[in-house]
């Protein structure tokens, strides 16, 4: 995709830090930055599954020999591991320009009263505490140069809560409140705070939500035309390649068969 006449110049040689880059939207975003800059980009790619990151790194290097990538294991739910991780980032990647806070998940569809405590903890530690902790750690870099983009992966679940999603929805509401406060706090800076709020995107998200049960996950999309990870990746790259004074503050993105969290058209099978 072409992002407009100046996008390549605006993005070239920037350093992008993506959490949850081992799959889905995070992985697609790494590729999209590589395509948009023809490999003139530095990527810090983190997640728990380092083997996936290694494959991604090899594929990126083979398609774009000029690309610079640093991969590292980071479990964002372990907030005490964030500072040690950041210390392992090589010097040439340390001047981060774009932070994509993408790592996140839902677990199960249980209703209040029956939700596993460990699922509540994991969702909040990942989607909320992890994201806040990484943002806190990176923000001084942006403040020091009065520049930088923070892209947070929210969700329609952060605007439109639904039964069976209380914890995930609450986590994305928390993310949205944090994101809005941050944007207001940074009003006198050139730092942009962007929230992308997807509807249904077919990734590993539903498999994770259904504890690895692929057939249950597939049912979610039966008779539907969900977005794919690349659709969201394009919007992340688009929003961070606008001219500096343009802030795409919120991007609510649905597939055409969806109009709210639960208002979904299903074609008869
Ligand atoms: N798919 C959708 O329909 C949808 C809709 C709205 C919003 N979103 C949001 O979009 C973001 C990306 O989701 P996706 O659809 O791409 O899901 P996905 O395919 O399951 O990918 C999730 C990514 O997050 C990483 N991750 C999970 N837990 C982590 C942890 N504790 N520490 C570090 N990384 C972790 C995973 O890597 P590892 O397992 O290797 O750590 C993976 O790379 C999430 O924030 C999600 O809430 C998705």
Automatic annotation (TrEMBL):
UniProt entry tagged with the keyword Plastid: no
Domain of life: Eukaryota
GO molecular function: oxidoreductase activity, acting on the CH-OH group of donors, NAD or NADP as acceptor
A Pfam match: adh_short
Keyword NADP set for record: yes
PROSITE patterns from the UniProt entry: ADH_SHORT
Key words, A-Z: NADP, Oxidoreductase
InterPro entries xref list: NAD(P)-bd_dom_sf, Sc_DH/Rdtase_CS, SDR_fam
Gene3D superfamilies per record: NAD(P)-binding Rossmann-like Domain
SUPFAM superfamilies membership: NAD(P)-binding Rossmann-fold domains
Family, per entry: Belongs to the short-chain dehydrogenases/reductases (SDR) family.
Protein name per Swiss-Prot or TrEMBL: NAD(P)-binding protein
Organismal lineage: Eukaryota, Fungi, Dikarya, Ascomycota, Saccharomycotina
């Amino acid at each position: 995709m072409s992002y407009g006449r100046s996008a390549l110049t605006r993005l070239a040689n920037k350093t992008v830090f993506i959490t949850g880059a081992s799959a889905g939207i995070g992985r697609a975003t790494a590729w999209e930055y590589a395509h948009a800059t023809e490999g003139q980009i530095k990527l810090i790619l983190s997640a728990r599954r380092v083997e996936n990151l290694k494959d991604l790194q090899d594929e990126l290097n083979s398609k774009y020999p000029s690309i610079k990538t640093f991969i590292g294991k980071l479990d964002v739910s372990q907030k005490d591991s964030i500072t040690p991780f950041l210390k392992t980032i090589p010097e040439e990647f340390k001047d981060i320009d774009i932070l994509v806070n993408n790592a996140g998940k839902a677990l199960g569809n249980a209703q209040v009263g029956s939700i596993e405590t460990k699922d509540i903890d994991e969702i909040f530690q990942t989607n909320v505490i992890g994201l806040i902790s990484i943002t806190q750690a990176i923000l001084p870099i942006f403040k020091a140069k009065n520049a930088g983009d923070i892209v947070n992966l929210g969700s329609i679940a952060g605007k439109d809560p639904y039964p069976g999603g209380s914890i995930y929805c609450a986590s994305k509401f928390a993310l949205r409140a944090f994101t809005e406060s941050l944007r207001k706090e940074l009003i006198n800076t050139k730092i942009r705070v962007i929230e992308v709020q997807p509807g249904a995107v077919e990734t590993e998200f539903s498999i994770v939500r259904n504890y690895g049960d692929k057939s249950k996950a597939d049912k979610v999309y039966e008779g539907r035309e969900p977005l794919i990870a690349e659709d969201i990746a394009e919007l992340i790259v688009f929003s961070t390649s606008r001219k500096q004074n343009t802030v795409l503050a919120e991007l609510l993105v649905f597939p055409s068969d969806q109009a709210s969290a639960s208002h979904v058209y299903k074609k008869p099978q």
